[in-house]
Design goal:
Layout (H helix, E strand, L loop, with lengths): L4 H19 L15 H23 L2 H7 L5 H4 L1 H37 L4 H25 L13
Helix pairs in contact: 1-2, 5-6
Length: about 160
């Protein structure tokens, strides 16, 4: 029995999470915050670790035939089209951040990402717009009221 690429990647990601967790003990503890400075890095490390463990579990449970059928032989550009679209949209978001700000730019990024990766029908476009507004509003609320962080304002809509 051969080991699939997903299994190898999951094991490497879990090992990387272990290295990151060990390195998180070297983060300087500051006295000016309400939480220790290691909280958010460790939350991210735990999330990556959970997803890596799920990937490992999935790759071990699937038979070899199913894993080879799930990865079709496609040219490079067609295979990574969705990732390229997201990177291009994120670059557009970063370039327009000074003008649009976090609120408009973030909502536009989420809307365009959902529309580009999904089926752009009139009903789904309305759903994508609602998801974009609600998700950016929730993120703004968490950062503003929960974390007391001011997000970048734009020139168009200074909030």
């Amino acid at each position: 029995m051969s080991v699939s690429r997903d299994t190898i990647v999951a094991i490497l990601l879990l090992a990387f999470c272990g290295v990151l967790w060990h390195a998180s003990y070297d983060i300087e503890i500051t006295s000016y915050g309400t939480m220790p400075s290691t909280v958010w890095p460790r939350i991210v490390i735990i999330a990556i670790g959970v997803f890596s463990a799920l990937l490992l579990l999935r790759s071990l449970l699937l038979r070899e035939e199913e894993t080879t059928e799930a990865a079709p032989k496609l040219p490079f550009l067609k295979r990574y089209r969705n990732a390229g679209i997201i990177y291009a949209l994120f670059l557009f978001f970063l370039l327009t951040l000074p003008t649009l700000g976090m609120h408009l730019g973030g909502a536009l990024f989420v809307f365009l990402a959902l529309t580009a990766l999904g089926r752009p029908s009139p009903k789904l476009i309305a759903v994508h717009a609602a998801i974009a507004v609600v998700s950016i509003g929730a993120m703004w609320s968490i950062f503003t009221f929960g974390l007391r962080v001011i997000l970048p304002q734009g020139e168009i809509l200074p909030i």
